[in-house]
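new request in #modeling-help
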Amino acid sequence: MADYRKMWEDLGMDMENHDNLCQVLPTAVGDVFLSQENRPNAMDFWDLVISEVHGIRPAELIEAQKEGRKVFGTFCVYVPDEVVIAANGIVTGLCGGSQFWVPDGEKVLPKSTCPLVKASVGARLGRTCPFFRIADMYVGETTCDGKKKAYEILGEDVPMYIMDVPQMKREKDILKWKDEIAEFAKKVEEFTGNAITPEKLAESIHIINEKRKALARVYECRKSKCLPISGRDALLMTQISFFDDPVRCAQMCNRLADELEERIKNGVSVVSADTKRILITGTPLAVPNWKLHNIIETSGGAVVCEEMCTGTRYFENLVDETKTTLDEQFMALSERYMKTNCACFTPNTGRIDDILRLAKEYQVDGVIDCSLKFCCLYDTEKYAVSRALKDAGIPVLSLETDYEDADAGQLRTRIGAFIEMLS
Amino acid sequence: MGIEYYVGIDIGSTCAKTVVMGAEEKTLHRLLRPTGWSSVETASSIQEELESLGISADRSIVVSTGYGRAAVPFAAKNITEITCHARGACHIHGTEDLTVIDIGGQDTKLIAVERGQVTDFLMNDKCSAGTGRFLEVMANTLSVTPEQLCELARTGGGTSISSMCTVFAESEVIGLIGKGEKRENIAFAVVDSIVKKVASQAGRLKLDQKVCLTGGLCEFDYLRDRLSHSLRCEVSSSPEGRYAGATGAALYARDLYMKQKRMNG
């Protein structure tokens, strides 16, 4: 492994504490990923990236910054990457997915805040994640109360821009989101010093659409009864795609999809025929949160789809590429993003439709609806989700968990019993 | 030598239950011991006990269940306690359609069974509210056994405990003792708290079929009466209820053997 210590020191990181994190990650990667059999060869790219997750990509970002490019850190699939890329900026995801960062977050946030928010704040304030150090500006959004308030705290430490996401999906809300995107574009132009032209925006819309199509191709392969990739591997791909360069991301996903399509043709599956196919729905699984997938896939199940921000919500629906003026393009962006069904909207029946559709498309045996602790929005939607699934005759298990391992035994019992129930 | 014994071992958080079945699903032995601090050691003492009863390893097939199910190295298979409790309760109560309420040491489970299949289940959260442990801690505080506490509760009333958390509820009980509240009234409040917690969970399941109580508390008549009252339905139990998980596991051991036999022609 390359030596990144100098880079981390220059980023002002807490080296001693960061070493603790670096020590546990290889074991986790080994246990969750490398122990699997018959993995697709194309996973080598993501294995490499995750093995040096705080090194390879951060080093690239720092090189780009030296050339004068700006890095924008984001926390939500509602923030349009296209706008940043059109101004020659770079987007990196910033959501924290490890218990390691939670205690530092709890120094300033209430305990009853969701672990994703606590970990994200902790990663910044504890100075133990290079991505949180590198980002020149954070772009937040109003998708939950926990985040809104946490951004006020983060804003004291780093330049912060907030986009106001509508809470309903009426025509005027789509127009409002278009205005928010246009205003964000102005901010990005100002911050990067680069103008966003219709040509530049058309180009970035195309780049991100290609990335979405590539991710969708991999997911398409997971619909096959001959399952060519584990849920864990697919999740890792999706998680890393939030951090990677979008063009390379598309290339790598397409390379993986080529192999998976070949596998399906040749009848190569990673699981035995009696393995139960599971759709997971709920709150996002930020890297390195692999807890749920790992338990399911070591209890007789295979995760075949995630109806999550780290899943279908990230890549479904494309932006219309035919528009030629900024005004039309911003509208096209708004229309695409407003199709994403987040629990922060009311009503949010579109999400129920998505879940029922995905359950069918991915030929699932059961659905596990899991939310992070203290996520009032997704937790409350569980009622409607489970009722709709039961009405459709699809078994569902509702769970709530956080980043700690303390409930792993109980989760294993519930998930194990659920999978036995499907047999 | 062929297989003659089908053994189910249910290693719970408090007690380890073993059921040995012979031909025709006939129960030959029921064994009970505290789980202690190590599931692995408990499993090996059970193995010794089985040997001493003449149930040798080469003539038996074992299925383990319960939270310590992975700690039984001589088990042919381990199956979750949800599935085993459902199967065992159906066997004990002689029905295929049943809602099982299992109050265990650290978990309370509610399981809906239709035509012998689990169709839905609920478990309590991480905390021990409404479980056997809760009752045990409160009984200790009142210097009685859990059984005595339930009998005392029969004559009490008029007070309640509001904390769901065992630790806070214990402080509340100590507060009531300090105020000079009668022991039977505090006992009533303890049982009432468990019943309310279980009933609120049960509200999410269908109760329009036979309902039974299993687990270590199933023979506490007063608790069962209160539960029947609160759920507005007859909650039945059986002296074998404590062994429902182990019974289910033994039945699965038998299935496993039959399947193996079929596969070997």
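bot summary: Chain B has a mean pLDDT of 92.
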